[in-house]
Amino acid sequence: MMPLPTVPGLAFLVSDWSPFLGPHWGNFGVRYYGLAYILGFVSAAWLLHRYARAGRSLLPAAQIADFMMALVLGVMIGGRLGYFIFYHPADLINPPWTIFMVWKGGMASHGGFIGVAVAIWWFARAEKIPLLHLADLVTSTASAGLFFGRIANFINGELWGKISVVPWAVIFPRSVDPGTPLARIPPRHPSQLYEAGLEGLVLLAYMQWRFWRSDTVKKKPGHLAGEFLIAYAVARIICEVFREPDADVTPLFGLSRGTFYSIFLVLLGGSLVAFSSRRRPAA
Description:
mainly alpha
């Protein structure tokens, strides 16, 4: 382990919160991570209802509950499978039941995006609603869930940043072997909060501004979704600079997995922007 960087007179916050909200029994209880998902889905549903009431959505208010159920399944299945496929593929077969041990954590945002894309495609086809329009609606709300998820990561003391002595650095006891004296645990960037700010609050504010202050959703379906993918990827790549790579995950082409997979989001987002820009504007 690297020696502890010291700064005279500087104290660091220690991230040693319980992952549970209130009492729990073994692995059972209300986890902050689960609460983050609930808050994210509730926020998305609330925004979708606002869109419908304002007449800016082709998704009827009566179908929002069904659409949200499809999105929940897409996020949960895609995020869980993505974690293993993108980061720990060997665990899918050795042992295969590990995928059901959700109390041990393990979700991938890139996998969640794929799951949501499949859910949007299925719902659009089943309900005869334009696919790109639904994509714009979903991406305009997605950052709320990203914000709550990253806050939960911070509370859980996971996905910590690189060692640093900035005044706002945090000590994450889980970043070292159990039993290590607190004085020997190096402080780190709270990269989860950086991601909550960029991927969450900043991106949510931008998407809401674009949704309400422009006619992009009506005139260029898919453009807003493309903007989201590009902006998220850029924010993720920036935050990866401060985030400690997983010790048990091999980088790809010298890049962290998060950075590498985000490149494909930039390409996909750019393709959506280009495609929507070339389409004839809606009447």
